[in-house]
Amino acid sequence: MAIRACQGGISSLRKHIFNLEQLTLRICTNLFSFRALNIAGATSFLCKHIS
């Protein structure tokens, strides 16, 4: 009984850690793409004003 409860706790903890990793990855990806968009926007803005 105690062993089964322990295994259940470990598997739910693993699932929680996996979800946390996925969330972190998604946040990092969003930040990176947002930054890339900002850089692209700033570059095109500068190019328009220079030419």
From TrEMBL:
Q: Can you tell which superkingdom this protein's organism belongs to?
A: Eukaryota
Q: Spell out the protein name for this chain.
A: Uncharacterized protein
